[in-house]
Amino acid sequence: MAIISKTYLSLYGVTSTTVLLNVLLDLGADVDFIIPNRFIHGYGPHEELFREAHEKGVQLIITVDNGISGIEPIRLAKELGMDVIVTDHHEPGDELPIADVIVHPRIPAGHYPFGELAGVGVAFKLAHALYGELPDHLFEYVAIGTIADLVPLVGENRYLVQRGLKALRQSPNPWVPALCEVSSTVQKEINEETVGFYFGPRLNAIGRLGDASPGVQFLMSEAREQANQLAKQLNDKNTERKKIVEELTEQAIAMIETNPTIKDSLVLVVAQEGWNPGVVGIVASRLVEKYYRPTIVLSIDREKGMAKGSARSIEGFHLFNELAKNREILPHFGGHPMAAGMKLPMEKVDELRKRLNAQAKLVLTEEKLVQTLQIDLPIELSEITVEAIEDIRKLAPFGTEFTKPLFAIRDVKVKSMRKIGSAENHLKMELEDAYGTLDSIGFGKGHLHDEISYGIPISLVGDLQINEWQGNKKPQFMIQDVQVNQWQLFDIRGKSQTANWLAKIPLETTDFIAFSEQTKAHFEQLIPKPIVWITEESVLHELTSNIVLLDLPSQTTVLEKLLKTIAVERIYVHLYTADSQYFNGMPTRDHFKWYYAFLKKRPSFDLKAHIQPLSQHIGLNVDVIKFMTKVFFELGFVTIENGLTTVNENAPKMALSEASTYKIRSQQIELEQKLLYATYKELKQWFDERLSS
User: Fold this and answer.
1) Burial of 692 (0-12, 13-18, 19+ CB in 10 A)
2) How far apart are the first and last CA of the chain?
3) Residues 470-518: pLDDT tens digits?
């Protein structure tokens, strides 16, 4: 079959483009393509591009992975005398374009048995019809485009991806090993995760930062040298894209956190001049992960007076339908229930936020705003083996609506734990129970290192993988979430740099407790929130479930009273002590007896002048000698006048423990022994006993 008219492809996805280019070139078409530059042309068909095509003599325009919302540009194309075929899978609006043919899995409704094809899937179906037979050589492109588009991996999509992954593992095309090389993957081991996490982002990055044509050229390359060169270009662009995404995400979070109007809205709408419109969809996804709310991220062009960007949603908020209710202020938009692109006048951004917030209040309940994980099966560590994981892999490929099984591990303990990665943003843990141990990894979960303590049972949710290193295979648990099942003790005793341990504590949900006025004064300049000063007479106000004990109380009853007033989740023990008595110890009765006899032999002893040689002579600390002198003075055993200590031989007999100084030192030594110098295990047991009473 020959295509005699000059054909022009208006496309978005590079895989969709590649599929139709292959079939049209094979059938002898005079064909050219263009992927609209999202920086210049925005999303969907563009009138300027169609005019240029007409001037070049194009007779037929085929749109791929777009066009269903291009009402006016397609009307223009028809007025110019060109034929138009729309192939798309995005949500159709109330009005359809006046194209000659619309190839869409949901138009007319119910006509095609599977309505969830990706844009590349629709292109593949057209290619199948044009060839007149199943185009086996195109499956690898369909697999990449289908996985990257996050469409449900069920039904026909599942078949297409299964065939495509198999084709990729055996593909002779030079671009496959080239892509494997730059992404550090092995061709014979390609699976849906390889495509989703390594191939897809690199193929998408080039279009997000500019002209996407090199992506098509890469997939069409027939020489290994050209493929290697283009693969490096894609990889470099992906690295650049990652950096831009990180910067924009940080800026967007700062905007949300400092603007109550945005932060308090059920639909987050952030807009900023100069943001790269090619990556705002990824930024929106990051914000949904952090806040779990529908999110729109817009780049403002002040010269044109327009805001352009992308949106991502959550379950329960049909993004396309909710945006469609605002057509009068949102002239250009398209997408799915969970994702959309749009363009609107910049002065309408605040109004859009206000409208969507009002709409969200009608459909998003508190329950829907809490992200939930559907656990498939609880398992024991002893059940997790390489063989079991290999059996689970036989169910692959996994993806949207056919997700990996999610497992729960309950009541295990952390044997070891550390942050990993150059930015220390990942977590590596070794879990243990009575039957064995298991390695686990939490990508992006590095913050949990400061939220999990040792020695308590925790539960985890995640999936299973096999970690293979130098031929050895080990099971590995990939952490998605962690639940702590009881209160936690965090030991920050002896940490002298306040800023270091303070950075690991959630300030907003934590109260800082001081038992002495001196401690309160010491930390007031170091901790950016009020410090709660507690004494024996304090009337305890409502405190949070997280507390930091900055110092030691004067007696345990004060601390025990405090513990009974709060529902403890975390206790951080710092226990700053300016003058520790524990190592100086309590002098024995013989020490007191000897010292009293010593003073009795010297009617007027100048303690200040002779305390140092006395300390060396009897082997007692200077502070201990001062302490014994003060005890004698309080009991009336000695008098001190003009710096001279004199024994009062007529003093009545009294027990040393009756002196208040003796009592205070005894209590402090006991407290330091129980709290400040106890092992972590002993300290945890001490608190457990009081919290359970």
Assistant:
1) exposed
2) 86
3) 889 999 999 999 999 899 999 999 898 999 999 999 998 999 999 999 9
